[in-house]
Write a structure and sequence with these properties.
- There is one protein chain.
- By secondary structure, this protein is an all-alpha fold.
- The protein has one domain (20-78).
- Helix content is 57%, strand content 0%.
- It has two helices and no strands.
- It has helices at 21-38, 50-78.
- Helix 1 packs across helix 2.
- The longest helix has 29 residues, at 50-78.
- The model is unreliable at 1-6 (pLDDT under 50).
């Protein structure tokens, strides 16, 4: 049985733009601008103090960037062209 991951499933170029920063901003806006306020779990992003807004945005950008760096490394290691 072949356990190699299909390379086509690992490639999402629009999600990975700017090493995932675009997706990190989308996550920030989706969660803090829509989902969390909709369920009354947190105030909307525009009502947060600037320091908290900056912290949340930076945190999302950082974790999505780390995920993208690891994804690229694993994709390179698992690609058939890698020696």
């Amino acid at each position: 049985m072949d356990f190699r991951i299909n390379q086509r499933l690992l490639r999402y170029p629009r999600v990975a733009v700017w090493q995932g920063f675009g997706f990190g901003m989308l996550v920030t806006l989706a969660f803090h601008g829509v989902l969390l306020p909709m369920f009354h779990w947190a105030p909307p992003l525009w009502e947060l103090p600037p320091a908290e807004w900056a912290s949340e945005t930076f945190g999302h950008l950082l974790w999505i960037w780390v995920i993208e760096v690891i994804r690229r490394d694993l994709q390179q290691r698992w690609s058939p062209d890698h020696g």
